[in-house]
């Protein structure tokens, strides 16, 4: 009976509209204020990429005469969108949104956005070193152009450097959303709070995780599936995790870590070390170490191919 | 010569149009009936998310006065789209589509869709526990709002709980498509047939695989790259895999499994156990066990950083 | 002060417009010529899929009467788009774009595109074997239709076979972009230069990496997270990596490799072998070997669940 | 006060939701059935144009080899969309939609749609004469291609000939919607029930109105603003207009009517006549008449330009 | 020479960027504030139509159970969009935008928008009479549903009644934009300041113009091309037009005006009069008058069809 | 029977694919070359409007600092799109497209496009006078901003001035398409070949037609429905219209023409004249004339409102 379907639906709507059923996860967001928007943040990332690597993205031709027009317009547009998103982020994180002063928040958003834009030249400088590292480190790469255009790691590192700059300025929520965008696109999950030096490269990259308090030196290379993670973390007297304690590894300069290695806890991997794939490392490693997995076992073969 | 290109193309079109070249993979889909649509299923997922977590997705403001309007419209729209997609799924799986009774299928689709909607309140209840688990388990999380809005695992688990409800009702194909959408977006691959308890969390998540006959208790936490998989499976006398046999692990309550661990076969990981990263486990593990990888080897360092 | 924001922005625009700050990564792309376009390449892939698997994608119904119309139009459209993208790829890779002869390049683009189209029947033949392998190898699969429609590995292998055909013809850049599209969508990273036989399957797939000089026989199956990678590579006298040396594994017929295994270097995994998950293999393996990880250690359990 | 706004809105929603306030204009449309869709009908018109004038619209190239592929696919797509829209139109006009037999309606929709498609060759033949008339009649036209591509009258006449064919077959509502689409685009309002011969042309066209029972011979030319309308119409004993009585003019062969002329009632304008602009004609006109407005008056000029 | 083109372009950019070349028409719009948006106003009109005529527009099904959900959500969305657009309109008209108080304007926008929404029930009541008049007055109309769905005049009158309500509340600019949207779509140009009674109908409508100070009674019917316009208007001592003087006609109840008639100046057309087509009327007309054009002349026929 | 529908469709496809049925209207367009595109020309018009009236269209804010960036980017984009469209137009008009030299055409397209851009400053200067005329001539106008933003005549005149500049340079087809876009949007049909002076205004505008050889002086004002048209035109010995003969009116400075007036043939309306509405004028008019329609007749009133 049709009416049966409709009575089911009506009953479900009524239950789902009960405040107690959603209030513990309901976001108390400020009336008339929009949530941060994934599609606006995609524009933020795309405009930043166009500004940082002129000629690769968007429609811009880059005759010397006209490059400044494009950078000018892209930067203005970036600024406008960013102010809105930062403002939305500030409202999102506010616990009692009814109370705060809107025009003050708006002016903070303008300040943060313009600070970010003033950091773009430095971000470009760092990214140029990352591109160089990827190019030199991959025998399959034909040109730096191909690296910028095709390599997922460059996208992930670009998002990280943007997100890290925003987070350092004090912008809430938005940096995390930007790094999750790269995570979804590339499978590379770099927490925006991590600290990463120059000439950083990631090969292939799917499954890489770099935790919030990680510190990575210069000229470090990671392969796919590498985790720089935390061990279990201490709880306070109420059983809640104590936030803000350094709990991820320090990777010094010139380290290479092969595929699927898991490095956990506030340990140090000394400069120039090589960590083999698929290892589980929870203790510090001296400089110039080379660590590989214990030899696998040969076991009896049985017809059928299985295990 | 231009004509040369066109004769190549013409020849290819003719070959590709030969029925014998495509018939072994050709889908005998019912005339005038659409295939299930990925973009319609994205709407299904988005509408479900808006209904389950009011205020986070879509344009909805959530003044107490108006929340029921939004839930009402979103639920009606969800119902309409879902009826079409379930109907398409029913047609897809039918081996002799010419024969079946269309109006009966249509009425089944209505029934399944309204059953699903009546399960949404329970789905919300479960997801609230998952959000709580993710929030408590991550020292970097600032609020439940951030968890819902940013964490890929919440997206993957939401899709899983939706897909599992549909599959339990009896809907074919659609559940698998919904879980693959989350797989593509997050790198987390949860089979909709798996059984998963409350307070389930996945950290980072890229590369997680949870097989079709897995059973997971309450308060379990997985890290990125964890596999709950099958060993080789028995074949019947014709050499075809025997379907429907339990072949994935049982993970009891309060278990934590670290990054890249591979747990294979119908084994049991006892309650409260901790499985370290990068291990290969094919035998059952007693409750409160702690298993970690055999120590890696230190090998001789040679200049150049390679292995 | 508002003016303060604007002076920051103005200063940043000026710095970012300085040629020296972007010239090392600037792409010297030919005036008036477009860069290759991701969205055009998505159309290339979608049209190819519609042609290869008629009835699954797009709006095409496949009455025997009309299937040739659809294959005809899709192939014509594919040709047109592909000519443009190949042309863009040829221009991209050119170091001194001012010098080359446009109409010659255009005619090369036409030639390459029509060569590719004449390879589509063979690509379909290979893919049909891959679909069959996936169907037979997965007890959860209900029909070949479901495999084609839902399994990410089929998408990744389709993109690989397309990209490999283009690369073999001599098309630059575009093959890499097409394989990166699948990488982003599925987490499976197959280099278009790899050589892969018939009846190839990948289960789940996230994190799989198959390097450029890998050679894979017939009837090989990989699970998620498997790497067929390179060890460190030799440098020339200038310290640059020597390009084009075989540096990835050879996997012979009928091999199965379980989740997260890392196989590195120009070694051979002999026919019929089984490689267990999470192992690190850098030496050749005899035919019909079975290799698994050294047993993990049981360590002392401590309350709290951590490591 | 904010609450004041919300109480206003809430009150309005309540009033607007009262059934008695909308029921006299409410459309009793059949549950689960869509209304006819303007955007679907735009596709109908665009596909028809592509089929009728190959090479002008859409992406089709028209190499002799490939033209049949495009016509095949466009015709199949047209058929599919048209079946849906005709079905929607049949449901719309039904007074007691609960009662009728769905599958019968569906089968009528298929029949009407395929009848329409079988009329396309004749529609093309007629339109070719209209293009010729426009080309010969306009000294500013450079080629027939320009006429087809640019002249709004060709668009309006195309829509009319499509709508008229549908209406003649018996399709309700849709023909009117298609003619209103041309009306909105061109300002030319031709009722689909009008009868119009070959070699018909309209110059400029804005404001032309051709009523439902008009009959127009061959080789007739109208200028902008011409009305072929009705005088007041007879009422039945209840004061309602009597429907279906011929009430618009008959325009015989080879007539020209200049801008803004208003021809009203079931009168006949004899073959070969010329009607000057801005006249008001409510009586029949003999063949080969020439009718122009009474001379305007010269009145006293006053400085300032006004009247 | 290529450089020649670029120097032309560079020169043009420089000239066009000179402030004196655009400052007389430059809009001094308030920094960071958007201009009113045509596409947002289309949403305003579409949402209003969905609310006023439930079941005709949008996706809404109108089961009695669910109609209030749709009206609720549509009204909330209308309110949100309208607040933004009214705010943009208030900023646009401000001569010295730097000076005014933003939060005051914002609160005015909220007030105006909610006032408008509280007028929607009365707007619906008026429109129902207009639909009835169109239905009764057109022998070709099959149902009120067809009138609402297809007749351009209903669209134009709906926009007028919306625009008039906004203008009466005090909203600047937006009403004019809404009436111009209908003008572009239908060729009917009704100034939002005009006063129009119940049961108003326009047949065909292209070219109708109704000036700002026109007053139209109940049950009036206009045909296409009718102008209710102004004669020349008085200038003040500086030669500028004196604004705000009544300068358009008064049309009393039950008047019919046929196609292309031009009625100019603050004159009165008495109740129940009939004005024939193509006449030029600049003097008042007594009630129950019937006015038609002076008879056209028959002139000598000459072969060739011209004039 | 279903097969019946399909056989109808198949038969129609075959007939429609016969070359003789479409060849007389078939466009012999050059292989691989696109037709001119309406949506690209909409971009041309929108970019031109943004450049000509900075701050009204698009997203541009117009801080003095940034206005040149926006004009720079918009002009570069306009140039790129225009080159393609002019090239498409050149190919369209070519009778034997196989023969001509592509690179020569391409270089003509570049030349024409850059010539057009160098005319933009003069186009802006003219349009500023038109805006002023509209503002001064309409007592309902509140600001020049409102005139630019809302008045359809400004859109039509802008398109005319753009189209006229292109046509004067020698661009084929495109100018006509641009003027038809304004015709469709506003109901105002100005042939791009017409010559129109400064301070030109059109009030309301629907139905205005200005023919190809019209010459209009400075400070002329037209109302809706005014035609500046041709009488019948002379034929050559083959019965074809002789092209290029002046056949439309000359309107001298300071003339006002009221609604629906039809002025036909190469006559002159002397400076400062006023032409009343609804008149039919086929003879020249001395300067400072005032011409109005012959008085309408009062006829016997009959109950019922009809004529």
From TrEMBL, chains A, B, C, D, E, F:
SUPFAM superfamilies noted in UniProt: Trimeric LpxA-like enzymes
Organism annotation: Carboxylicivirga sediminis
Keywords: Acyltransferase, Amino-acid biosynthesis, Transferase
Catalytic activity: L-serine + acetyl-CoA = O-acetyl-L-serine + CoA
GO molecular function: serine O-acetyltransferase activity
Pfam families recorded: Hexapep
UniProt family annotation: Belongs to the transferase hexapeptide repeat family.
GO biological process, one term: amino acid biosynthetic process
Record-linked Gene3D superfamilies: Hexapeptide repeat proteins, serine acetyltransferase, domain 1
Coiled coil stretches, renumbered: none
PANTHER family: SERINE ACETYLTRANSFERASE (PTHR42811)
Name of protein: serine O-acetyltransferase
High-level lineage: Bacteria, Pseudomonadati, Bacteroidota, Bacteroidia, Marinilabiliales
Superkingdom of origin: Bacteria
